[in-house]
């Protein structure tokens, strides 16, 4: 058994336990080994912080409190009281296409989890709240601070198909951003490499707010580098309002970047579908 605990009251525990006998449930084994209550272990399971693996097999999340591991299985507990106590902001279901669903992801909700939990992710929310219930798979990602439209697949086959559409650039994505300064009237393509790799963003002005000297922009991207839009607009001299990493920070503002449009030929129906956010969910130049 390997165990590491930090923080007052053992608030953060990482434990790796090899099962020696097949006579007890995972909850009881982890409770005894960690010193945590069974209730705490069950919560950690529900929130994606308990894993099980065997040999060279890739570990998977273990959620069933009634599961009895076999001899030779390895249990992994990644317990962080702060992470597990976090309550995710609620997303909004925009369309249920049965094999996949379309959501509005608010800022703060994650596109993917970690070994310490996945309860603050969009796909886990979908699994727990959609009716009828279905498995959920992440197809593409948005940064934690970015809000907007996301697809969630409800089967491995459709997940691979939809992910292929994104990889082949057959999904049209548009973003809306509120930036500092007056952006030029003429549409502009920004092609500064990011991390040594080609990157291109196509930007056009929607409106300029002279009273605040902000500009509302529409952006289409031809590549998908990390923080591409945020970095390109900062390099162009028009950082996004509320960008604490690549901009001015702007106390009182959240990141004013929204994935506002998604369109593609549906692989199930064979027709083009268009999803757009209503104006109430777009950056509001007069919000502050």
TrEMBL record:
Specify the protein name.
Answer: RNA pseudouridine synthase
Sample GO molecular function, one term: RNA binding
Q: Which GO terms describe its biological process?
A: enzyme-directed rRNA pseudouridine synthesis
* Entry similarity comment: Belongs to the pseudouridine synthase RluA family.
Can you give the residue ranges of the Pseudouridine synthase RsuA/RluA-like domain? 99-235
Organism per entry? Sedimenticola thiotaurini
List the PANTHER family. MITOCHONDRIAL RNA PSEUDOURIDINE SYNTHASE, RNA PSEUDOURIDYLATE SYNTHASE DOMAIN-CONTAINING PROTEIN 1
